[in-house]
Amino acid sequence: MTTKARARSPAFLGIDAGGSHTEAVITDRDGAVLSRVRGGPGAVTLDNIARISKTIAGVAKDAAREAGIKLPAVALVVGAAGAGREQVRAGLERTLKALKVARRTRVTTDGEIALAGAFPSGPGIVLISGTGSIAYGRDATGTVRRAGGLGWQLGDEGGGYAMGRMALAAVGRALDGRGIRTALSEELLRTTGAADLDALVAWAQTADRAAVAALARPASAAAERGDPIARQLVNATAADLVALVVGLLRQFPSGAPGQLALAGSLLGDGSPVRVSLVSSINRAAPHLRIETNPPDPALGAARLATQA
């Protein structure tokens, strides 16, 4: 069946709204992908619901245009970073319903759609480390538990913001004479455009969460080149992620999932954090089998939409 022929069948829309980008997938009833497009950041808070709703609606329209269909879709499921709080989730869902992107709309967490993207059915755990961090697990009975995802003010250890913040602190101490100045210092000064400590302080005072989280990339690059301070940051980040998984496993007193999927910008194939994490997981929870293929959260959201 051609794409245009499939596009005339009922369309289901899944959207992954994360801290770095928003991704939309449209499928038909059988799960065949009709289109996939990306847009700007989609993490939601109480203060930005109206703006994020427009971002999501815009990406949905782009996906519909690419698939050759007209909105509204039959059903829409959005998994949004920040939607773990009921007030935020309900507000985003209400606003999207008013925009009439789909005849049925449900907003859930980014963790739930990642779990659906990694394990369409059956038990498993998905660990996400992007700007923030969270772990979701489903056992053989279908019971779903979560650990982490508390937000950058309260937690999100093991995420990009936390790692970027640690890198800033380490470089600040080095430039202040209280730590060791290594290549990491030069890497962060170059990335932020700061010439010295005073300029770095000024940059940090105005940097938003995404800008700080982006510092995880040069820190990871420095670790790959053998920088000792950057290696410490990588191992500390991996240890925090292992703690998330172990904490989640404790919530399953019997029948704990045996498969683990890794997702998010810090856990890409071959990344320093992933390498350190895998080594630590093998010691802390040797029964877990790590999936080689990353989850597809946007497709997971579309799968949930077909079940709506």
Can you give keywords for this protein?
19% strand; five-stranded mixed β-sheet; Nucleotidyltransferase, domain 5; 308 residues; alpha/beta; 12 helices; 10 strands; disordered N terminus
In short:
By secondary structure, the chain is of the alpha/beta class. It has helices at 3-7, 49-67, 86-99, 110-118, 160-175, 183-192, 197-206, 209-213, 216-224, 228-250, 272-284, 297-306; strands at residues 12-17, 22-27, 33-39, 73-80, 102-109, 124-129, 133-138, 144-148, 259-263, 289-290.
Question: What does this 3D model show about the protein?
Answer:
- Helix content is 46%, strand content 19%.
- With 308 residues, it is an alpha/beta fold.
- The protein has a domain at 3-117 and 297-306: ATPase, nucleotide binding domain (Nucleotidyltransferase, domain 5, 2-Layer Sandwich), CATH 3.30.420.
- The strands form 2 sheets. A 5-stranded mixed β-sheet has the order 3-2-1-4-5.
- Helix 5 runs antiparallel to helix 10.
- The protein is globular, with a radius of gyration of 20 Å.
- The relative contact order is 0.16.
- Residues 1-7 have low confidence and may be disordered.
